[in-house]
Amino acid sequence: MKKVVVLLGGISPERYISFRSGWAVAQALRSLGYHVQCVDPALGAEGAIEHLPSIPSNAPSLEELAAFDPKSYIACVTSQLLAECDCAVNMLHGPYGEDGVMQTLLELCGIPFVGSNALACRLAMDKARAKLLFAARGIPTPAWVTFERGTTLDHELLGELREQFRSGMVVKPNCGGSTVGVSIVTSGNLDDIESAITQAWAYDRTALVEAYIAGRELTVALIGDRPLPIIEIVPRDGYYDYTHKYTAGMTDYIVPAELDEPLAEFIATLAHEAHRVLGCSGITRVDFRLDDDNQPWCLEVNTIPGMTETSLVPKAAASIGIGFEELCRTFVEGC
Question: Given the DSSP bridges, would you call strands 144-148 and 206-211 parallel, antiparallel or unpaired?
Answer without folding.
Answer: antiparallel
